[in-house]
Amino acid sequence: MKTVLIKKGHSGIGDDMYLSRDTSKVILSLTGKSIDPIAKKLGEMLEMPVVNGFDAMPDDKKILCVVINCGGSLRCGIYPQKRIKTINILPTGAMGPLAKYITEDIYISDVSSESLSLIETLNQPVNAHEEVNLAEPLPAGDASAVVSRQVDTKPRGSATNTALELMTRFATSIGNFVSLLYTSARESVELCIKNVIPFMAFISVLIALVQETAIGQWTGNALSPLAGSLTGLFVIAIICGLPFISPILAPGAAIAQVVGVLVGTLIGSGVVSPLMALPALFAINVQVGADFIPVGLSMQEAKEKTIRLGVPAFLLSRMITAPLAVAIGYLFSFGLFN
Asked: Which of 85, 122, 139, 215 is 20 to 30 A removed from 104 (C-alpha atoms)?
């Protein structure tokens, strides 16, 4: 028995789909007036007939799979609703009026010829009653009765068919473009709903907590005596970079505001050298972004294990980079002020 493995494309959805040869069924192509190349290749690999649904519609029980080029309309979900395996050559996800029926076990999208591979071939004798003339056209009235193992490859050279093929290609190109825009808009909205808006709510709660409990103000006042020396800035950088403190200090930039104002005032009054300005900037901003790492990784579609290991790794790395940033800032401060 021949079995074809179909994998989704880069922008598609769906689990790996397996199609096994069944001489009692057909492969249905619903992509226009001509049979889609993907459907033709499937027919050749499985040695099964391919039916153009725009010429003759077989019975649902006689359909092994359906090849479509739908950008998100009703056609995407008709056959998944019937639990018939559906192959979409466009990168269309679960959308349209019947989106709830589009599941990854029977639907796969963004399929190209490179997505097809023959994974099993058992040499079996061919029965005489399965042999059918290659040039014999498919019956228009009852396509479900066809059990030919070959695909009709009769050339279409008339001007009418050429014009129809050109129109089909043009319509397919427009459909691809519209589908791309539609998919991009849908993914943007989903990203905002699932990641951005919850993150905004999370940060708002943290900012309110920091401001209402005066945690940031108290911490800033406690660290302000250290802002006048390079050693003190190292201490501030290490404290602000502690993994269990930095996510709390980041919202609202309370540390940066308090210590920044203090250092600026001391520099303006001449108590602290202007050389402290740049290293102080790095010292008081060590915690910046510490509260954004989990959301940032999830927005980049990182795996759960990556997020679980990446967040503490990032926070711990600040303990190393923070003093280095202060030292580099201090070195580059020479020559900035006369």
From this structure: 122
Could you tell me the residue ranges of all domains in the chain? 3-165, 214-331
CA max distance for the chain = 102
* 9: number of Cβ within 10 Å: 18
CA geometry: angle at 53 spanning 48 and 59, to 5°? Answer: 70
Reduced to 3 states (helix: H, G, I; strand: E, B; else coil), residue 80 is helix
Angle at CA of residue 87, ends 15 and 168, nearest 5°? 150
Output b/e per residue, 102-112; b: 16+ Cβ within 10 A.
Answer: beeebbbbbbe
Q: What is the pLDDT of residues 114-140, one digit of tens each?
A: 999 988 655 544 443 343 333 334 444
Q: CA 93 to CA 79: how far, in whole Å? A: 14
pLDDT in tens, 103-115: 999 999 989 989 9
Nearest to 282 by CA among 238, 221, 242, 338: 238
Taking the CB of residue 89, how many other CB atoms lie within 10 A of it? Answer: 25
